[in-house]
Structure formats: structure tokens, C-alpha cells
What does this fold into?
Amino acid sequence: MKKYSVIIFLLFVLVNSSCKKYLDVNNDPNLVYNPPINSLLVNSTYQTGFNVYRLGNITSYYVQYLASPNSGSDRDTYKEEDLSVTWSAFYDVMTDIKEMMKLAAARGDNASEHMGVAKILLAWNLNMLINSFGDVPYSQALLGKDFLTPTFDNQQALHDTTLRLIDEAITELNKPTPLIRLDGSSDQIHHGDISAWLKTAYALKARFLNQLSKTDSYNAITILSALSNAYTSSDDNATLTTFQGNSPWNQVARNNVNLLLDGWLSEQFVDALNGVTYGVADPRIPLITNLTDEDIYKGTPNGQGRSGTGTNNEESVLTTSGFYSNSGAMLWLITFAEMKFIEAEAAFRNDDKTTAYAAYLEGINAHMEMLGVADTDRDTYVALATVSVGEAALTLDLIFKEKYVAMFLHPEAWTDARRYDYMYKDFTLPVNAALTSFIRRSPYPVIETSRNGANVPAVILTTPLWWDQ
Amino acid sequence: MKKIIIVLTVVIFYLPHLSIAQERQITGTVTDEKNTPLPLVSVIEKGTKNGTTTNANGAFTINATATNPVLIFSYTGMQPQELKIGNSDNYNISLSSRGQLSEVIVTALGIRRQKKELGYSTEEVKTAEIIQSHQTNIVNALQGRTTGLQINSGGGAPGQGARIVMRGITSLDPGRPFQPLFIVDGLPIDNNTDVTTGEINGMTNRAADINPDDIESVTILKGGAATALYGSRASTGAIIITTKTGKAGRFRISVTSTYGREKVNKFPEVQKRFTQGFGNEYDSTSFWPSWGPTVEEARVSDPSHPASLYNNYERGYGKGNFFRNTINLSGGTDRATFGASLSQNKHDGVLPFSDFKSYSIKVNGEVKLSDKFRMGASANYINSGGNRKNADRYNEQLSYWAPRWDVMDYKKADGTMNVYGPENDNPVFIANGRNLIDDVNRVIGNVNFMYTPFEWLTFTYRAGADVISDARSETAPGPTGKPDELYPASDFGNYDPERVLGGFIEEYRNNRRILNSTAILSITKDFTKNLTSTLRLGHDIYDTKERSVYVLGDTLSDPTFFNLNNARKVTGSNRKNVYRIIGGFADLTLGWKQILFLNLTGRNDWTSTLPENNRSFFYPSASISYILSEHFKLPGWLSYTKLRASIAKIGKDAPPYAFSTGFIPLNPQFQGGLTLSNRSGDPDLRPEFTTSIEGGGEFRFINNRLGLDFTYYHNTSKDLIIPVSVTSSSGLGEVYLNAGSIRNKGIELSLTGIPVQTKDFNWNTRINFTSNDNKVLSIYPGLTEVVIANQFGYLSSGVTQKFIPGMPVGALFGRSFARYYGSDKEDPTFIDLNRPMLIGTNGFPIINTRQMFLGSSDPDWLGSFYNEFHYKQFGLSFLFDTQQGIEKYNQLSNFMAAFGISPTTTNRREVTTFQGVLADGQPNTKPVYLGQGVGPDGVSYGNGYYRNIYRGVSENFIEDASFVKLRTVSISYNLPTGILEKTKVITGASISITGNNLWLKTKYTGFDPESSSSSSGSIADGFAGFTYPSTRSYMISLNLSF
It folds into this structure.
């Protein structure tokens, strides 16, 4: 009997251990567990750039660059719209950026380029988020299963975090050339050029510091100092040139052609350029949009929607030949023109009208060159008395007026508008607006309110952000 | 008849005086206790190789060779009888009466048990009822035949999948299979519906590959104790299918041929007053199908306008037809038998260019090598597939099509699309050009043996494989380049910026296989004369592997060359999947005096999908069965009483790879980039458990003329593994966690009767009633809902089906008309329909954008009413089926309202005052114009009430989808034995005429409410707008046996 029980026991052990191996097949073979660090660079850079479009497609309705062809559309009229897709796009890219940082940290100084770029991208995304939504999850965010319902961090503290991240990035990028280099084809923004990334870091720093214009911590000197290390010409512009599908604004223009109406210009923007508001025809408008069948440039008032059927060329739209929306169009993330306007504003607030005026004119010129305006048209426009007013007559109004045109479709334009209290000429509330004053923040998305509701702050859309007092 | 008997008697009287052959021809009929003739009863002369089977009339003829022949009659489910042949040569045998007591039923793992032993509810559907409706999909063939099952055909597409749910949904994961397990001849088979190439193409649920003509019986095991031996995979119940095997006796052939025609059984109604255009202005090239002026007004400006408008839905569907043939062969001796069947099926659907074909070959054999050892094998090869159309898109485009034009005129003379304007596409042209063709090759095979070294010890082993290879190809051509070509770019694929090229080719290959091995040791021991016991110990391995490849070739250079080499851009992906589970189980049955039975089971599973320390889990069950009528003397009219109760726990594991975290390539692929997959899981994931308690009884009255089966059950599933959708700021999209519980409780009632039973005429009737209360008890703390699915509606009126604690499983949410609550508090979830509507200052109702509960697709009750009549050679049967208390979202009516097609919009030129109150509580008195443009009061109404408001209110489109259907009516005629004998060759012939889905009563305004926008493998069943319409069919069927 004993012999049998020994045999049975051995069989049992044998079966048990082979059983274990037989059942150890639960690692998903369709996943990669050790990605190369450059493969994470692709999505991190691409989605950061694309987020500029995603956010721009929302804010352009607030600052009345674009208007909806449907009357009473939620975005036009400040209604509570669900922005879960855009919100999630930010956190998705930040997840990849953090994974890249983990891989870089594991390699120490051998991956300082990746660490530096990662920190720039993180700061950039975070800054875009807080300037739309205010308090957002960060310290408890992106930690997976341990924090399925993260708390919302204070926006001011997060703004300091973005500045800190930029400074740390600059330190990383200034370290000696590491073993692991950025791969040019993976880096969708600067294609592996470290000096370009450094300039971008400073450019973002200048932008972030300029956002504080209404607060006591606004410091023009630090802004100007950052600018001196930032862009020196439009060649330094941060752009996305390759896309997974079509260039996003081009896709908008195509949708419109296919009767999925989109990309309609607002009356506010069109009138600012066609002479109605300022009495001057801006040579940039023919390069951006189309003449209607009445042979004029006509925008749609926000909230009003289309006057006809929307399919008969009765209004100006983003066209498939326009500068921002043709099939080869780049996506402009940070431009030299923007830098110049920041410089003009900072210098002006610092009572240095000389620097301010020079920067102001250079900003206009840079934007016109970017669009490909003919030299003569550009010079004619700049030479106008209402534009070249002279140093002494320079006002913040003029700086903001011109910056408004140069920042077309860019989400930072909304930050500018709120810092300027929307005081653009003839800028009014949209038709049938759901709020009684201009919108100051975006509504928290349903993905947070339904899945993390206890932590979402209760806000109304006219409550200004902390820097907007 | 009498004459023949006299002649035979005389002949036979003289036969013993002939000294030549000792053969005697014995004839007779075999019936059951209801006097119904039994076909296919095996009649063997004991001790010889002589045998035959009864024909469709239950008649047999056998040439007995022995001096004192003894005939053995045997039939599944009946007690075998031996008959000593005496002087007579004609015998009428009635097999095994005394009702349920000796009825043998196939239970888990192919174990045949006496039904009286079972302490849980089971039901059996015999072959006669399965083939009665001549459905090709076995799931559809079960509709209305049993209690406890909710079966919905997804629609009328050829090869369309059917959805089956047993005793409610027990999982909170919309991605997990929820149907009962299908077992064929002891082997679990794949019943997936693979929708990788698109949801709305009516893809087949794979159990449909089994040919109903091959099925001998189907046993329904409803979960709990019944399926405890099958383990986790059967926690949602099991459907045990036993296919026909060879029968001893002479070689027999049976041929069945069926031919039928069908057409759509219900169309939505449309308005026929207003024609093409917008804002009451006619334009024959307009995108807008029905916002123009009246037909009379249009004919003034356009004399070519037809006098009446088409109903596009009626126009867009034609007649379908199907043709099916099956040949069954069988033969053998009492030592070896074999069987084979071949079948073919072709079905052309009502949606133009849709079809389905299948071929099947099945062979099986069993050999008795000795008295102690028996082995058998079977193999079934099936090839099936068809040209699948996207009915959702087809119906959507029929909605955009202006009814002024004939949609069937879809091609110009040069072969390009014929359409009236540049902004529309012709759906028939698209259905013709875009083809999704699937081709499935499948082999199901098994080998088994049984060794009985001693009378009390039996060892059974069965191993089987189910191997599926699914090849799909979807193509659409590029533009031809002919002048003035209108090309449907949005359906025929992407096109390049110059619109010169287009088309695409998509190839999908899926290969999967299931390997299964089951070994059972069975020991019987009679402790005393009255106390019997059987102990079964078993071991089970289930191993699946799946690989799939998907390639898309976008933009074809040569517009009709469908080859990946010809595509401008080729992208692809592939997937692998492995799942294994090992089980060990024990089953003990104790019986006392054949009156009281106790059954205990225990099973332990080891699975590959849970973390190592939680991989093994154990679950027991206990059931008791008490035959009261055998224990005590009951009044005469109560012929049989059985009471039963059971309690069982079943464990279930996680889906494969639930807690793997890693990176995936970007989709579409881009510069080799990878991103973190946003699906993860708890590394300490535990199994989920369902506890089910069941009790019931079976009663027979008046000598089995009346029967009542009753069951009450209460199932609670806990620790459910849910993919909890978390907020994106956590860095994840879904996390698999143990959270949540669901409860199902209900009753099942079946009333059967034989109101009339005479020599020539009998009438059987059956009423079934099922009511299941399916409620979500809890989900993850902090989480308020799990979204199952949602479907688009204009102006954000899309409807979402959700799991929400405290609500029924099919809960639907969407936008509604705002109501006035004054100072009372408004409930956040439920609309108080007694409140007045809230009207705005502009005179129109206000939309409540908050997602409110609008209805549930979970039925209140199911019922069926079945009758079968036999008069001599004739048979008539009909089956009514009903599902009540169902609400569904009718997306079709949402579109019909948005485009002015719905009869509701006929009042668009009227002025009305909406009934309701304003924000201050005062009644609304403002008259408003319901149409477009400037109204009679000079006010501009823009795009009109129906486009501005009505189509944006989901509440308008949640409809009562309850129905009563006449599922099947069948008339059959069996040729009398007398005529058959004259042919000498044919032993059975019958002809039947059947109609399916003949009559429908429902309040639903769209197509047949049973059809679904979701696939047969989807938990979501709340959407029924754009579906492949169900059909009413008529068929004639001929059966010959040789």
C-alpha cells in the first residue's frame, strides 16, 4: 500500500508542477513590455502638438475666431458642453510622457535629452489644462490603480509646477551630450534638435510668465530674459508637420466640403480683417479664407448659426486652399510672432516703449511673412497710420489687437482675451448666450463628474481662474 | 387494412408447413404512452444481427429467423422492452409508460440520468419540435419551446445570429460571453459571434453551424446544480445537444428537402404627403428627402414628379428564398453502428445581394469491442458563409433617399451610380458594390471510449476538438473614371484629395480551436436493497487558442482589382489569445427506495486567467428530489408528484489577460510609436461566484393527461469582475476589479395537457410562462454606472444602456421633455410623467438634457402557447410566443422625424399650442407654427419644430417593443404505411407546409421589434432601429426514408 501511496504522491507532485506551467499563459502576448525609449517619444510629442489643435478647436469659439453653423450651439453660447474627449487626450499623453520619464530616470544621465524633453512636454500640457479648467488632478493623477479617483490640485500651485518643470528641463538639456540621443524621426516637433528644444523651453517659460499679467507676481524682466534665450526667427517655430491622417484644420475644411459643416469663421474675426471694424483691409484675409458668392468676406455671428442652408457659399470658412487649412498645412504650436507680442507686452508693462514698439512691429511682420503675404502688401499694411502709430502712441490695445490676428486658431488666444477682459473692439456676447458675461473657464468634463464626482470642484463658467482676478 | 391482415393471417397459417426457410415476417407498430407513433425505434431480433427501425408511422417489418424469436425494442428515453413472438405476426407495442419515472435524460458531461433523480429543473426538446419550424439556426429553433430562455433573432439576414439568454444576465462586463454553454456530444463548442469586421452585419453565432436535422435531442440545463459539473463556463446554463448516431439494423437513408420563400413581415409607416426639398420649397436634386411642399404643389412645377411617393423601406426590400437538403444515413448491428449525414443550405435574403450558404458532412460510428469495452468517434465538417450587408447603413441611406425617386433604379446605363443629386448616394448601388463575404471552415470531432471492467465500475473518456477557420474579405471598388460619375465615397472607402481613386480591400482571418478532454470514473454501490449510490469522479481539461490577422488595403489603383498589392496604403494588426482551465470534480448520488434522491457535487477549477494565488477555486452543490407519489398513496387524479430543491455555488474566472499592463502600437500606426495600453486589472483579482437556490415541483394529473412543472429560483452573482471605467486622469481607461453584484430571481411554469386522446386523433397542448427579475445590486463604490452601449440620436439625443445599482439590467437613458415641478424636488433619475410639460417663452417645449431613465429592455415576462394535433396521417401544430414589458430605442424613428419621413410630421403646416406650463407655472397659451421658415404669424421658425426640438428628445423614440407572435404553423401529412409498402423501397414519406413569423402584434412603429442593432453576442439589446428586418416565411418540406 505504501508503495502505491508514494507513487500517487509523486504523480500528484509531477502533475501539480506541470499544471502550474501549463496554466501560466496569462501575459498578454499582444502587448510590449519593454518599449524602446524613442518609441514613446513619438506619441508624447505628437499628441502634445495635437492637443494644441484640440484645445484650439474649443477656445476659437470663445474668442470668436470661429462660429458654429448651427444656431444655439453649445460651444458658441457658453453652454455646459462635455469636453471628456479633449480632457482625456491630455491625460493620455501625460501618461506616456511619465512612462518616458520613468525609462529616462532608470538610465540616469544617459537619457538627459529624453528627460528634458519629457519635462517640457509635461509642463506644456499641464499649462494648457490649468488655463482652461483651473484646478485639475496632478499629484494623485496617472498613478493607476492606487488612485482611481484623484483629487484636484490647486491651479496656482500647478502653475508654479509648470515653471519648475521648465527650469528642470533646461538643466537637463544643458547637460553634456548623453549616450541615448533623441531620434529625429520619432521626435515630431523638433526632430531631435536639442538647441531647438532649449529655445522652446524658454519660449514656453516666457509664455507661462506672461500669463500672470493680472497678478502681483508678474515680472517683465524675467519674461524678457527668458525671451532672449527663446526664438530668434520664424525658423525656430515649434510645429507639427506630419499627421496620422490629414492635417487637423485641413480635415475640418474637408468635412465642410463634404457637408459635415465645420470651420466657419466668426463675424468678429472676419470683420476685424475685412475693414468693417478697423476700416482697414488686412492683406492676410484672402490667404486664410474665401470670398462668399456675394464677393465679400462674411463671417457668422457666434450663436446665430447659418443664414441660409449652409451649402451655398454664403459665408467665409476655412477652405482647403487657405493657409491654415490646406492639405499640407502645418500646425503652429509656438511661433516667433507670439514671442514678439509677448515681448511687446512685457516691455510695455515695463515702461520700455522703444523695445515694445519694435517688437510689436516685428511681430506683425513675422506673422505676415509666415502667411506668405507679398512684401509690398505687408509693408503697405504696416505703414498705415493706424498700425505704425509711433512709439509714444503705442497702447496695450494695439498690441492685443494685432496679437489677436497673429494667434488665429491658437488656444493661448483665450488666455490673452481673458487677460485683456475681451476688450477687443466690437467684441460682444454671442447671440442667446447662456451666461451674462464672457466665459472665463471651461466646464469640467462628464468623465470626471460621473466617475470622480466627489472630487470635482463646483464651478460656474463665469468664475475667473486664479490669475484672472 | 383488414383485408391485408386476413390475407397475411392465412398465408402465415400455412407458413409453418413449408419446410424451406424458417423466416417469419413480423410486423407491427410502436407507440408511446400517449399513443403517438414512435419513429426510429430500434427493433432487433435477440441474438442475431437482424434489426430494423420503425418508420415515421412507428411501423416496422422484420424477418425473424430464430424458432422462437424474441424482439428487443429500444428507444432513447424509454425503457427497452423484450417481446416473445408467439403465433401472431403482428404486434402493437407501447413503450414504457408510467410517465416521467423512467424517462432518461442527458445531463452534464453526457451522463444519462433518470429524470426522477434530478433535484434541479431541466427541460428536453425532442427532434420533432426542433425541426418543426425548419429553422437553420438551432438557437432560433428553440424559440418558444422551453421556459427560462429568452431568444431573439437579430433580424432576417441569411445566417443572422440569434441571441440567447438563460435566466437573465449574470455579468456586469459587457465584453464577457453571457450565453449558455453549448455542448455537442459531450464537447463544448464555440458559440461566439465574431464582430471584428463590424457590428451590424448580422454575423452568425457559431452554434448555428450545427444542422438541426442532425439533432436527436436537446437538454436545457438551467444553471446552478445542473451545470455545477461543467464548471465556470456553464455558470450561465448549458444546452446539451445530442446528435443522431447510427442505429443497429438494416441500412437506412433519410432525405429531407425544404424550399421556402420569405418577405419582410413589418415595415415602418411613412408620410406620403410632402416631398423632396427643404423649407416647403421643391428641389429635385435636394439632399433633403421630405421637407418640401406637398406632392400636388410639386407636380405644378415639375410635371415629371410621380403622382404618389414611394415607401422607401418597402421599395428597398425584395423577396428572399431558401433551399435546404439533408441526407441521413445509418446502419449497423448490435456490435457496431455508423451514421452519416450530408446537408446543404442556400438562402438569399430580402436585402438585395445578401445571401448565406452552408455545407455539412458528419460521420460517426460506435463499436462494441467486447461486453466491457466500447468506443466511438465522430467528425463533423461544416463550411458556411455568405455575402453580408450592413443593414444599419442600408436603412439609414433609405431614410436619406427622397421618396420621389425610385431607389431600385440604382444603376445608369454605363454601370455607375444613378442618383438624383450630388449630395446623396443610392443604397442599393452601395449594397451591390460593397461586399463582406465570410467563409468559415469548421471541424468538430471527438473520440470516446467506455470501459466497464466490473459491473459496478465504469471508466469513460472523451476527447474532442472544435477547430474554426474564419476567412473574411470586404471590398468596395474605386471610381471607374467615366464622365459624370457620381461615386459613393463615404461607403466605398477613403479617396485621395483629387477624388480620382477610391475603394478598399479588407482581409480578416481568425483561427481558433478548443481542445477538450474529460475522464470520468463511475462507481455504483448498493449499500442495502433500498439505498443505492453512485459516485463519479472526474477530470476535465479545456484549452483554447486563437490567432487573428487583420489587413486593410486602402485606395485601390486599379478600381476593381481586389488584391492587397493593388492598394496604395496597407495597414494591419494581429492578435493572439490563449485560455486554459483544468477541473476536478466529484458527484455523489444517493437514492432511497427510488423515492428520495440526494445529489452532492463538488468541483475545483484551476484557471489560467487569475493570479497564481487565486487561481484555484472550489464550489459545491446539493440537490434533493422527492417522489411524493411513490411514497404515499395519493388520490387517483394525482398520478405523479415530485418535489425538488437545490442549492449551488458556481465560480467564474476572469477574461484572459485582465491584469496585463504594457504598451501597444499607435492606431493607426505612426512612426513606430507606442503608447501605454489604458486597460489594466487588479493583480489580486479573485473569482466571481454565483449562488443559486432553486425549488420546484412536477405534477401529473388524471393519468398523465395533465402536467404542471413549476420552478422558483433565486440567483445572486457576487464579486463580479467588471472592467470599471475610470476617469482618464487616473491614467487608465478600464480596470478589471472585483466589484458589483447582480441578482436574478424568477419563476418558470409549464402546463402541459393532452385534452383529446383517441385512436385516430390526439391533441397536445403546452403553455409556458417565464418571469425573470434581473437587477443590478451594486457596482464599484464611487462608481455610479457601467455603460453597456449607446446609440446615436440627433442633437445629442443618443440613448445609452447602462448598468446602474437598483435598476433593471436593460436600463435606457437619454434626454427628455422638461417637466414642471414647481417648488417640488425633481427626482434625478425618474421622470414624473404626471407632471405638466415645461414650455418656454417661445411657445415650444424645453429639452431636459440630464440623462433620465426612459425604459428597460429587460422583459417583464415571456410566454408561449403550443398546440399539436394528429389525426390519422395528418398533423397540425402552431406556436405563439410573446415577450412583454420591453422598451427599446427606435433610432429609425429618430431619423424619420429629423428628415420629415415620419407620419408624426404630417402636421407640419399646422399651428398648435403646446399643452403645458411656463416656468412660472402659468399655463402656456402661445400658438406656434410647427413648420419651417416663416410662419403665418410672420415669425421665423427656422428649421422647424421637428428639427429644432423634437428630434433632440430621446424620450420620443423609446418605444414599447413587446410583442406577440405566431411563430410557427405547420401542417404535415405522413403517407400511410399501406401505400408505402407498395413501393417496397420507401419506408417513410411525409410532406409538410410551414409558415414562420406569420403574425405579429406590437406597438412598435419600426421594423419587427425582435430584431436588434447589436450583434447576437452583445449584452446590449436595447436598440432596434436600423436593423435587418425580420421576415415572414412559407416553406414546403418533403421527407423520404428508405
